[in-house]
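Q: Hi! Curious about what Alpha-1,4 glucan phosphorylase looks like structurally. Here's the sequence.
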Amino acid sequence: MNDHQPRNLSLPTPGCFADPDRSGLTATDVFDGMTEHLFYTLGKLAPSASRHDLYMALSYAVRDRLMTRYLAGIEAIAANPKRIVAYLSAEFLIGPQLGNNLLMLGIQEEAAEALKQFGINDIEEILDVEEEPGLGNGGLGRLAACFLESLATLEIPATGYGIRYEFGIFDQLIRDGWQVEITDKWLKAGWPWEIPHPDQACFVGFGGHTESYRDHQGAYRVRWIPAEHAIGVPHDVPVLGYRVNTCDRLRLWRADATESFDFYAFNSGDYYGAVEEKVGSETLCKVLYPNDGTAKGRQLRLKQQHFFVSCSLQDMIRSLDARGIPIQEFPDHWAVQLNDTHPSIAVAELMRLLLDDKHLEWEAAWAITTACLSYTNHTLLPEALEKWGLDLFGSLLPRHLELIFEINRRFLQQVRLRHPGNEGVLRRLSIIDETGEKAVRMAHLATIASHHVNGVAALHSDLVKQELFPEFANHWPDKFTNVTNGVTPRRWLALANPQLSALLNETIGDGWVRNLEELRQLERYADDGGFLENWGATKLSVKRHLTHYIHRHTGVLVDPASMFDVQVKRIHEYKRQHLNALQVIAQYLRIKNGLADGQAPRTVIFGGKAAPGYAMAKLIIRFINGIADVVNADPDMDGRLRVIFLADYNVKLGERVYPSADLSEQISTAGLEASGTGNMKFMMNGALTIGTLDGANVEIREEVGDDNFFLFGRTTEGIARLREEGYRPWDHIDASPELRETLNLIEYGHFSNGDTELFRPLLENLIGHDPFFVLADFKAYLEAQEAVSKAWNDRPLWNRMSLLNTARSGKFSSDRSIRDYAERIWRAETFPVTITCQIDEAQVKGRQLPAPQ
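A: Let's find out. The predicted structure is below.
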């Protein structure tokens, strides 16, 4: 048992917010809490408890310990109001909660000791039971989760607002090499981490019409008469900071119908009609990102966004009303961050609430709106910058469209004063896109109304100003800024990589967990041969765990001593998984042709999901699996090359993969990746990066040094020149016999069982116009991979480079990102929560119970 108690954590005194017996942090306390929840909450006796029962009991016992801090924080804010950060995001990919909360509380060993009394000798048996909440798609949602954890760790009051998706992102199966999507039923066995608050529900309207009237003072007003309503019921998930008492929250909204059952329709024989309203309302939170390829899908997406944004803003206003704070002070108490364009309807909704419900005048309402809103842009891709057709928008949100027209009118009047007679500037800056089908440009709306607009890496932020919004940047040069993304070292190093964490703690102490810059102390061991050997042995030990996972789930045996060359992220053409696949074929051909001298033995690992409607991305998955089938069955590849596609990539699997990687593939087309966060997780765990000068790769290379980064490919400027000059993919094929042979092998059906048509769309895409310049960078990519092999074959050198990657990863902590936001954008201050008491150091009771069946 670990006698060390977490820094600044304390138990409540009698009369505080919880029973001290449900807040203790010893193994005995945890065991008692589990026993109580097994009996009273789950209705089970310990001898008959299953592993799932024990997971639920331990989770409830841990949640009890979060509640003390959670409620203390709410009471402290009520007594001494502070500015709270409201982080609005359509995604929160929070990952498994039990292991993370044990780490936050500092009771991993105590929980393991408690489980032994139930016959469980390895806590991983219980942690593996947990279903991961499918509340996000990729980097955007995981970033939001890292930010919430850092906000709590830095003791900044915050609430994350999102949707409680019943099914979330799909589960991915691979059948015959193809991605198959199945429903992600993450709630099917219950989820112990949420606390529903039906008493704090909100009403949200859709459709209908508006009408004008004069109030009792004769002022002109507008009221919206919606045609339908939904009820938003909040479910709170406590988010505890690392070894502090601050426990922020993630508030997720579930949609209910205003009337769940129509007795008249049922008694008339219309059984579907009896529940039609319930089904329609609950559809709002059924699934993350419904396919927007149909009119119904687009309508549902817009309804989802308005639903959670309206609920969240109503919740903020209600909190002010409850504390007697005037609405005019809204910006003093809430800093509202729009995480990409999904929540940007907040501009119009906040104006509606202030004008129509609070009866403020336009200037006062606009001043409040612009003082509290800020917007993070996450993409330069035009298709990802949301636009909504006026017909759809007006039919669903008629009052909001009126307000957007008025916001646009007033804004364009300012533009005319700066650019008289320049209709081109007006068209480019207008919130309403009038080219083709008229549409509302949500990024423009968010930019106009926000006091700050930030990109998420230095390069990306420059491109936002120079290419995406140059006129806006000229109009408001001080509005645009940069906050480079970061990831939490607690989950992605301390929790995911206990072997490396133990080595770090033993070598430089554990201060790095809260201050990642302390990893710089490792640099003094960069030339210590014995330490470097230990460093490499630690990595090998971690890789063995992933090796077992791969064999268990794919049947393929891989050598943990081979280089683990990893590309795991959302499947998209601009991320260029197909470039990686082409280099695998080239490596395969070199081995077959006897030209592979000095080529490092590799296990090339892919993982990621393709959007269900994205045909080319799904074909790339099939392509990778076709290559894997051939390579892994060829005896010439034994000990030299293996290809693995890990199905259903998520946070839980990421915790296995990031610590095991030797080489991190960050090979997107320059200028298209906003930042990336996987690149940071790999670096933090000692992987070396091969990549283009794109997104945060630029800053990673600056931090780690040119000699510890494998750079290749055209720059953003080089890509722009290729476009201007008229890019011809065939020029690169003609200049490279190796590339031609690689493409010929695909064309002849070598990786598709002789089917020459299967990968034809992919080949035609590459040879015809190659929109992401895969063939243009192929030669440089292979040369960089040769440098990788050379470095790998010098193991002391590789271990040194690996160590320096970890040592210099401090900048990429989400703690640094949150400090940047708090100081430069939110003006949010720390607010430590203090709970004074005496911790009971009772020893573990010696009770033994039989193992679960």
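A: A fun detail: The CA atoms of residues 75 and 133 lie 29 Å apart.
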